[in-house]
Write a structure and sequence with these properties.
31% of the residues lie in helices and 26% in strands. By secondary structure, the protein is α+β, with helices and mostly antiparallel strands. The chain has a 6-stranded mixed beta sheet, covered by helices on one side. A two-stranded antiparallel ribbon has the order 1-2.
């Protein structure tokens, strides 16, 4: 594990599965890697490859696509999937978890960046989205079959791309990459108020 302090924040990046990682996963609610909801390729659940078309409400996205707090939701590797992932994140963070506006908005932005990286850089047919909560923290994971590691690059004022991981690094309390036997899991964690 590689750790780096950024000011007062703890920013850690994990490469590879650490001993006890499965036990650490068990501390998160919503853990369940045994099954995955897969967005079907038919039109019954929405637009192309099951991605809802048009202005679907965040709550409707949970019903159409699946609940990433129950099990990993598989989405097609298409740019439209970023919109679906944002809707799912809005539904979970705002409705189910009732997070304050700022952490909910940051989570939506960061999931969009991780999904964008998976769509642009992995060449996968699908990727997985999972959302977990434990006391005082949320964790959002994007799993894809590529073992290529994302790179945090320096960002310059006039850059038109390449800001995704920079945003994740600035807005998340922790983020990292876990290498899996077949692919990787890119994740971020944010401190949030405990549920009431």
């Amino acid at each position: 594990m590689m750790d780096r302090m950024a000011g007062q924040r703890d920013v850690s990046r994990t490469v590879g599965r650490l001993p006890g990682a499965a036990a650490a996963d068990a501390a998160w609610t919503g853990v369940g890697t045994t099954g995955a909801a897969t967005v079907d390729s038919g039109m019954a659940r929405g637009g192309a490859a099951g991605v809802p078309d048009g202005p679907t409400s965040p709550g409707a996205a949970l019903e159409l696509v699946g609940d990433p707090t129950d099990q990993e939701v598989r989405l097609p590797n298409r740019p439209e999937s970023a919109c679906t992932a944002r809707r799912l994140t809005e539904a979970v963070t705002q409705q189910r978890w009732a997070l304050p506006a700022q952490p909910a908005e940051h989570a939506v932005l960061l999931v969009s960046e991780l999904v964008g990286n998976a769509v642009r850089h992995t060449g996968a047919h699908t990727f997985g989205l999972r959302m977990l909560r434990r006391r005082g923290w949320i964790r959002i994971e994007v799993r894809d079959p590529s073992r290529g590691l994302p790179c945090l690059l320096p960002v310059h004022e006039m850059d038109t791309s390449g800001r995704g991981l920079w945003l994740v690094d600035k807005l998340a309390d922790r983020w990292g990459v876990d290498l899996l036997p077949r692919g990787k899991n890119t994740w971020f964690e944010m401190r949030v108020p405990d549920p009431r």
